[in-house]
Each structure stands twice: as structure tokens, then as C-alpha cells.
Input
Amino acid sequence: MVKATLVDKNGLRKGAWSKEEDDKLRVYVQKYGHWNWRQLPRFAGLSRCGKSCRLRWMNYLRPDVKRGNFSDEEDNLIIQMHEELGNKWSIIAGKLPGRTDNEIKNHWHTNLSKRVKQSQSVSSELVNKEQSSETSESEDSQAEKSETESVSVNTPSEPDRHPKIVENIPSPQEISCSELSSMNNDYVSGMNGAADSFSPMEIFQDSGFWNQPFIADNNDSQDGYHSLLFTEEVYMPSYPFNYDDDSMNWIQQMMQELQDSY
DNA sequence: AAGGTGGGCAACCGCAATAGT
DNA sequence: AACTATTGCGGTTGCCCACCT
Output
């Protein structure tokens, strides 16, 4: 199920994620957001490339990721949207809260595509019957109707044939992982705006970031940076997505708490 | 019991899009 | 306008496990 972990020429780990790595990434992102995926692993104490961290977070560690079997409703929606959009997994994921594009893509390839193929073959059989049949017209139309009812959803078509879904999504309450990502980025960039262009790193520096009571875990540190493993006391499971005055207060409060605890 | 095979899924890779300079 | 950095997306790979022979 998981790829064996190995180390590439740059000393970066690849393959399966360990629980320790998951914990480091989860704690770091939940606390500071992902202000820069490329730089993040260094500060989180991870010997991973940023891309790998992003993927792990998006597909597995995000708190709102829904795991488990797909419901019939979800299956039908995926089939319907795939019929209309093609392999636009991220857009489809936007209609299925808690599901990731990767998960939907895998589910499609392993389950739904087969189901659609079966439906297609049933459909073509019906069409063949229809063409060769010498039965009455009324019977034909009935068969046509039943075909439409049973397999229309599963019949593939050109992606551009039904642009309506693209127009309709994303709805405000249904947010894809990529949109969530944007929200997080907005959170950070918004902080910049709200605080008159200070960078996340400046937050850390200005607030005594490097002196904060994190456990410096240099075991995995490849480049001399202090990795950050947070203590239970300062771990905070969530942060506000909107960066208004309350959020700035929250940040200031957080920083104050860190300084106090030091 | 042992080996083969295919399914399921996490993770990687390459490319395109976007943002920043 | 051109270049670079970063992110996001979709295709693909490869590992593990369950099932089959």
C-alpha cells in the first residue's frame, strides 16, 4: 500500500511517510499554515521536498479529509460529473466535500470506470437490438426510454458538451482541496496585507520565533536549520481562515502565549 | 503451503498555470 | 515583456495485500 521509504541524491526522503513525519507536518501546518511549500519542510524539520509535503497534507493530513467508502450518491455524482467534464478531478472533488482529487481519481480508475464500461456495453446491446428488431415502434420507444433512464448518466460524452456544471461550481459551501489550499494561502497572504506586508518569516522573527519553546529536533535536519517539533502545550489544532482584526488578535495572542511560555 | 496475479491506493513525476520580480 | 519561482493538476508508478491456482 505504501512505497518503501528511500533517500534521493539530495538527501530528501521519498516514499512512505512515517508517523513522525506526519506529526511534524500536521502540527506545523496547523500552527503556521503553508506559507511556502518549498521552504516549509526545512522549517518543519522534514527531509522531504515541498511538493511531497503538500501532497501529503492535501490528500491525507488535512483535518477535513473524509475517509472510507464512497456512498452511492458520491459515486453517482462522480460519474455524472465525469461524463460532463472529463478528467477534471479537482473540479469534481470540489463537489464532494472531504474527498480529494487523488482519492476520486483512484476510485474512478478502480471502480467507477468499470461500472461505466459495463453500462456502455449494456447500452450498445440495447441499441443493436433496437436496430435489428422488427418489433413495433411503440416497443422501440419504450426500450429507448428505459435505456435513457438506466444508463444515460453513465454514458461518456465530450467534455465540452455540457458546460453548465463548470458554470455552477464551485459553490460557496463546497470547497475543494485546492480551494482550501488557496484559503490557507490567502490566510497567510492576507496576514501580510493586514499587517502591512510582513512576511511569515518576519512574524517568527519579530515574535522571537527562533527563541520559542519548540523542541529542536535536529535528528532529521540536513541543512543546519532547526527543525520544529512543538510541545503539547503550544499545539493549537486550528487557526482562523479569515484574517480580519480577530485573526490578527489571534496571532498576537498566540505569539504572546509563546513568549509567556518561554 | 507456495507462488502468481490483480486490485487498491499512496506517492511520484512532469507539465501547465499563475504569481512575483 | 521576459524570466524565475511556486503551486496545482492529471497521469503514472510501484508497493502491499487478498485472492486464486
About this structure: Chain A has a mean pLDDT of 63.
